[in-house]
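Hi support team,

I'm filing this because I wasn't sure whether my run with zinc ion finished correctly. The job status page said complete, but I'd like someone to confirm that the output block is well-formed before I use it downstream. Pasting the exact inputs I used:
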Amino acid sequence: MTVRKVIIQVRLNEGMPKQGNPNTPYSPEEIAHAAIACHRAGAAVVHYHARDPHSGAASSSVELYAEVVRRIRQECDLIVMPTLGASMLPTAEERLAHIVAMAKDPATKPDAIPVDMLTTNLDRYDRDRKDFVTEDRVYLNTTRMLKYLCRTARDIGVKPASMMWDVAGVRLTEAFLDMGLYQEPLFCEIPLFRDGFESFGHPATAEGMDALLRFFPPGADWQWFTDTTGGNDFPVATLALARGGHVCVGLGDHHYAELGCPTNAQLVERIVDLAKLMGREVASTSEAREMLGFK
Ligand code: ZN
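And here is everything the job wrote out:
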């Protein structure tokens, strides 16, 4: 039996502050520079959030999002998956607006978007204070909104990636495949969560991952990644490598002070080494494009 090659995705920044690791990129220049370095180290997919270049605050500026893709495209064929971000925006149209604008120009068109297959509370727990940081953050994704995101992405030539936070997300993904809103090979991801994220998702453990994998339809062509929000990516990456999955790593998940505050590219180098140790060859970007069903 041939072992499937592993696709490495780097999650460059999310909402993480430079205070924890100064290598966390904010500006389009920093984000694109980090992405290109990660590509050279072995990553095939890049996920990023646009940030205010000075404060690091989340931004929904089309120009900041587009400038990242423009710079990456000049250097390499990385698969680019910007966030829809701004999860508290009330409508799917607003959440997708920057993607629709970017897709109009081949120089800034992204390849994929993440679609979160659930509605959930999104409040962080503070164990020291013994209370939640917020109490009213509802991440709303009605069925109508999810259909809009998938259908519009398909219409503008961007691949929707199914983010399955729980077993219901797996079943909802099957229904969306049945409706033609997703297509195989399915680009999908199991986001797992560490401490502070108790009110949603599954824990970043073998049990948390396997609970979803058990419901994957047998024989289906689901190209699945895992990621670890709020913690070190390597334990879950090791589990995914052993199970034939694809992996995420990056400063968006964790500062990695214990590794001396590395760059994103240095984290990718370590994941490449880990994959090789475990007998998994690393997919090139063109191989990843074929495995994930990009034309
Ligand atoms: Zn993200």
